[in-house]
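Subject — a protein and its fold
Fields — amino acid sequence, structure tokens
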Amino acid sequence: SKYGADKIGVIMYPRTLIVEARNILVMKFLRTTAEWAIFIDDDIVLPCGSADVYNNEFHAMLPKPFSDYLFIDQMMKNNLPLVGALYFGRHPAGKAQYSGGFESSIENANAHKLVDPGLKPCSWVATGAMKIHRSVFEKIMAEAPKYFPDIIPTQEGRPWGFFRQFGNGIGEDVSFCYRAAK
């Protein structure tokens, strides 16, 4: 198969704050030879290549062709260094989890109706379903002394703070995307 156990490794880290878990996972990822890290939160249900399974088993009711997509194929079919999948807050009217969904009620409504699907540039994407090339982390580390000295570990063995939040109300995903864009 194109994506099998021999091609995909899974790294999990339980029992810690999400920000710290993400940072620890990145450090483990950077010790591998893999090019891409894909973050999938445990509360995200992703299209699995079968609309019947996705919509009937998970009650997702995502229209075709989107419900027939295989998430990993969709994420890997471009070489952009950072891509997030479209998903919504945890309730029926939950906002689209990217900057446009929070900044514009029209953009949020269009996302819910899957108007103009496809890749679109935005300020940030939520980390619940995100693909990141290793060069993004490497560039952040190279630029950290100049732009982000607070994310550099101060003790040996501690992870870099790639996902360290800027402040209250600013999520780790928004903070990370800002660093990646910088």
The radius of gyration is 17 Å. The chain has a mean pLDDT of 87. Strands lie at 36-40, 82-84, 129-133.
